[in-house]
Each structure stands twice: as C-alpha cells, then as structure tokens.
Amino acid sequence: MIVGMEGIVERRDPTFIHLNVNGIIYEIQVSINTSNAIQEKRVKLFITQVIREDADLLFGFMDTNEKKMFDTVLKINGVGPKVGLAICSTFTPETFAKVVASKDVSMLKRVPGIGPKAASRILVELADFIVDGNAAEGSSGALGEAVMALESLGFKKDAIQKALSGCSGDTSTLVKEGLKKLQRL
Question: Which of 1, 56, 70, 164 is deepest in the core (most CB within 10 A)?
Fold first, then answer.
C-alpha cells in the first residue's frame, strides 16, 4: 500500500496532478484545497490508495487532517472517493468538524453529490469526527480515541456508543469498559 509520495509536479489541474517519482509519473487525485496548497515543483503528499476491480486510484493530500477526513468519510456506506474528494474540496478539516458537531445538514448539502438523505446519514455516522486529536464538540478526547479503538476492532459505532454511555476515564479505561460491555451485548 502506498502511503506517501515525494516527487516533481509535471502537471497540475484543480482536481489532479501528475507526479514524477524517480522517472515514473503517477496521476494523483487531489482536492482543490490541496491543489491550491501546492506552490513548489517538488512536493510531498500523503496518499490514500483505493483499489477497485477496474482501477487503482491514488488520492493525495498535503495535510494529514485532510487525509484523515477523506479516509473517514470513505468508510461511510454510499460515500465513494468522488464524494469524499468533493467534501475535502468544499471544507477544511476544521470546518468539517464544526459542520458535523453542529449537525448542519444544509452546509453538507452544498457538497456536489450529497443530497439531504446522504447528508443526514453522514452526520449520524460521523458524530465523533476528530481533528488533530481534539474531539469535536460534545466528546472528550479519550472518548473519541476509545471509540476509534473499538471501531478498529470491528465493533459497530452505535453499539460502541451504547456501551460507553455513562463511562468516563482515560482511553485505556474506556476501551476496557467498552470491551466488557460489548461482550455482553
């Protein structure tokens, strides 16, 4: 899996770049924010690689928070790379975290390809979206980390939230409590 690339920009469009890495030129899809942030010929990008039956796609980001935002929205059922990139082009990670925290459907509907149903689903799925290790409004950092840890173990977000409701403590305590309660469910 490719997680980063450094090379010389051969061509730059608003939604993709051609990056020459040691003589091999890759087409990398980028958000408009990333495209605007590329000022130098030599650039280092954080990469998300999406492998499909018919394509091997690379998505590049200058900012790790933008990459995290993209990776997070891709996990939502019905949200593909095209919509994920549109979200990254429309919002900065900080703005997106505020939109999610305030559950602002109308702001999310501004993104091309997102209607009212999809916007509502995204807001429900991303209730605990975190930027820069700080939790979005209404969620402590330890709670957000515990939720992510339990999700990485394969538990569903709604079950995790039920299990962790009323719990407090540091991340490891919350994970232990969550595991105990999730085993009973």
Answer: 70
- pTM score above 0.70: no
Domain 140-185 has CATH 3.90.550: no
Q: Which helix (H) or strand (E) holds 43?
A: strand 42-51
- Cα dihedral 103, 65, 137, 178 sign: positive
pLDDT digits (tens, 9 = 90+) for 122-166: 888 887 665 554 433 334 567 878 888 888 888 888 888 888 888
Q: Which CATH number fits domain 4-62: 1.10.760.10, 1.10.357.10, 2.40.50.140, 2.40.50.100?
A: 2.40.50.140
